[in-house]
Structure prediction request, 297 residues.
Amino acid sequence: MSIIDTPFNTESRIACLKTSGVSTIIRYYNFSNSSVFPQKRLELAEAEVISKNGIQIAVVFQQRQNSAADFSDGNGFAAGRAAVRHGQHNIGQPTGSGIYFSVDFDASTSEINNSIIPYFQGVRRAFSQESGGDPAYKIGVYGSGRTASLLRQRGLIELTWLAMSRGFAGTRDALDAGEFNLNQLPPDSKLCGIGCDFNEPNPDGRDFGAFTLDVEAVTPTTPVVVPANGNGHLQRVIARSGLRLREGPGTQFDIIGGLQFGQVVTVVSVTDGFARIDVQGDGQIDGFASAAFLEPV
Prediction:
């Protein structure tokens, strides 16, 4: 079975990828897509299609991140917060899975100490704050063996994904020592018409942070039945960092507010994984929120 990573949406290729033996697809989180890769960020619709086909998902956060100038404590905190919020609120990524952060160059020891370590300290602080002190996800790095080793020594990562370049410092040593969760294989490839890279897991079978969505929970096959009195169903927000309230049923709609952890609201109906929310209980719709992070009272 194959593990691939790609910056391209896989929805239209999923049947081919499944037939080709792909077992895990690694996709991206970021702040925003570029004109070069307009489909880089994983969205809920694609994640659901992947999961429905029995394929695992793994994710890596990257917004350029190919020089030391891209790394600082503040940048890491912003990236960590964006990654957790997208994973929790937009994707429904399960607790205990992983999010890798890309260090896409052969960083020197001084660059790691002065820029990359502070970046991952910011990531870890954001993970803790967004999850109420108990980080929901494991933190990983994509990069060189040296980068991973120094981050691991500082207790800043749980997962290591070695970049494909065997010339990166410390990578051959990490491979020989088995100090990795994932290993990206050269060269760049193409499968089912999309550009991708192939990867292998550590042969010892260790976890590399992949997940699948509970598609039945995220996207009910039938709408929630509204009681005859029209009051809907009372449900409680279970996302530790709260839940975004949007103008419409999808991540493409603007955020118009938020719901707090533990807040009880009225869910009038659920369609395509998004609940129609009545916050005041007055019969008026105030917005839409991910149904994956609501549970009956």
User: Anything to note?
Assistant: Residues 217-231 have pLDDT under 50 and may be disordered.
